């Protein structure tokens, strides 16, 4: 598979996403940075300690998780302002917030991995449009990547240290999981990390420590394997313009790769609303 390196020398990149201007963003976990790639120019913005996942709302603000400080924040690139929106769920501190994804109504699903490598301490939570949080799934081994299907009525998430991908129906009105079931497995010994849908409904799954991205059809069958020459892909996203194809963050060498996979990514669900800014 032909690829090109678009960013290098990153300290554990994750959270790939694109804003409405076509700029690519990702996180740099070990430096606490958000990284912006715009027409080959790279800018870093220090926003915290260990910045894991990222998602962009309808105002082109970057929502991020900080697994060291156990919080969810927003960075506004228009004024470099940082707002902390959540640090508790069900009256308790967040437990290592990780990846995140918006539903079609602007509610935010967040995986909290809880360092659940050997004990099922991982969970999924949801923030409503007023940033009130509640737990929706729990007792998992290191919850990770989340992606909504085309219709917005179901989502897939990674349970990394169980090598499991789960599928769930989603009720966006009362913020509840209607039905959750095991969907498909990946290789180990670690498992699936970040994920992204294409418009055909195929899911692209980065398999950490396995030098590959599995392509899985809507029935849960692996239909292709994209091999890369680096061990630790962490997540992936499609460039809406098509210029960069599938973009992959990779942690072994600290790179962002661009691969032409002849597929078009699904539209990113964004959160577009006015919120009262507040800090803790």
Structure report:
With 280 residues, the chain is an all-beta fold. The protein has one domain (3-259): Neuraminidase (6 Propeller). It is built from no helices and 26 strands. The chain has strands at residues 3-7, 13-18, 24-28, 33-38, 41-46, 51-56, 62-66, 71-76, 81-86, 88-89, 92-93, 97-102, 108-112, 122-127, 133-140, 143-148, 154-159, 164-171, 176-185, 191-197, 203-208, 212-216, 222-227, 233-238, 246-250, 255-259. A four-stranded antiparallel beta sheet has the order 1-26-25-24, with no helix packed on it. A four-stranded antiparallel beta sheet has the order 2-3-4-5, with no helix packed on it. Strands 6-7-8-9 form a four-stranded antiparallel beta sheet, with no helix packed on it. Residues 273-280 have low confidence and may be disordered.
């Amino acid at each position: 598979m032909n690829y090109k390196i678009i960013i290098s020398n990153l300290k554990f990149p994750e959270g790939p996403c694109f804003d409405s201007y076509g700029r690519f963003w990702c996180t740099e976990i070990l430096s606490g940075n958000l990284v912006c790639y715009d027409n080959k120019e790279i800018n870093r913005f220090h926003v915290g300690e260990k910045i894991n996942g990222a998602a962009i709302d309808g105002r082109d603000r970057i929502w991020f998780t900080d697994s060291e400080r156990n919080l969810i924040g927003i960075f506004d690139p228009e004024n470099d302002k940082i707002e902390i929106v959540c640090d508790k769920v069900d009256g308790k501190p967040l437990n290592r917030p990780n990846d995140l994804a918006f539903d079609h109504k602007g509610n935010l699903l967040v995986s909290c991995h809880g360092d659940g490598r050997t004990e099922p301490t991982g969970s999924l939570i949801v923030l409503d449009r007023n940033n009130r949080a509640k737990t929706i799934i729990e007792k998992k081994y290191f919850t990770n990547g989340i992606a909504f299907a085309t219709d917005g009525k179901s989502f897939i998430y990674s349970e990394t240290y169980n090598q499991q991908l789960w599928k769930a129906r989603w009720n966006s009105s009362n913020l509840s999981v209607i039905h959750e079931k095991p969907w498909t497995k990946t290789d180990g010994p670690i498992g699936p990390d970040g994920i992204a849908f294409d418009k055909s409904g195929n899911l692209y799954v980065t398999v950490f420590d396995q030098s590959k991205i599995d392509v899985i059809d809507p029935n849960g069958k692996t239909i292709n394997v994209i091999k890369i020459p680096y061990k630790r892909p962490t997540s992936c996203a499609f460039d809406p313009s098509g210029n960069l194809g599938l973009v992959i963050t990779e942690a072994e060498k600290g790179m962002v790769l661009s691969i032409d996979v002849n597929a078009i990514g699904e539209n990113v669900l964004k959160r577009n609303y006015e919120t009262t800014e507040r800090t803790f």
